[in-house]
Amino acid sequence: MKRGPLLLAFAWTVALVATLGSLYYSEVRLFLPCELCWYQRIFMYPQALLLGLALFRNDLGVWPYSLLLSLVGGSISLLHLAQQRFPDLFTLACKPPVPCTVEYIPAFPIPLQALIAFTLIALSMLLLARSPQKA
């Protein structure tokens, strides 16, 4: 198997695990997502579908779309992490019922998990952009 399809499969797996993980946190563990969590989901959930479809169709040209979603989503994750770590520096406040400073898993914050996923997908898409487009 060539590098392009492997990168696409890896990115799809990361997006799928991140999507299922966030659903597990909200539906099984009953963690209420804050406003920034919702925005991060907006940029992760479509990637599970987009990258899955691209993998199925062997469409290596999907990288710019996924990269853009990952960069925006990752930026929101960084903002969320900063707000959790330094709540007094931000005037941005999430609307009730859940403030963005709530940390359900202090040892491995959920925005950090999302940032890692967005970073892995973005790196995969950058490598995919550099690989030959023939599958």
Structural notes for this entry:
By secondary structure, the chain is mainly alpha-helical. It has a single domain (3-130), classed as Bromodomain-like. 68% of the residues lie in helices and 0% in strands. The protein is built from 4 helices and no strands. The protein has helices at residues 3-27, 35-57, 63-85, 110-130. The radius of gyration is 16 Å and the shape is elongated. 32% of the residues are buried.
Return the structural class. Answer: mainly alpha
| Rg, alpha carbons | 16 Å
Provide the CATH topology.
Answer: Bromodomain-like
Helical content band: 55-70%
Strand content: under 5%
In short:
The protein is mostly helical and 135 residues long. Helix content is 68%, strand content 0%.
Keywords:
135 residues; mainly alpha; single chain; 68% helix; 4 helices; Bromodomain-like
Set out the fold topology.
Blueprint: H1 3-27, H2 35-57, H3 63-85, H4 110-130
GO biological process, one term: protein folding
Family: Belongs to the DsbB family. BdbC subfamily.
GO molecular function: protein-disulfide reductase activity
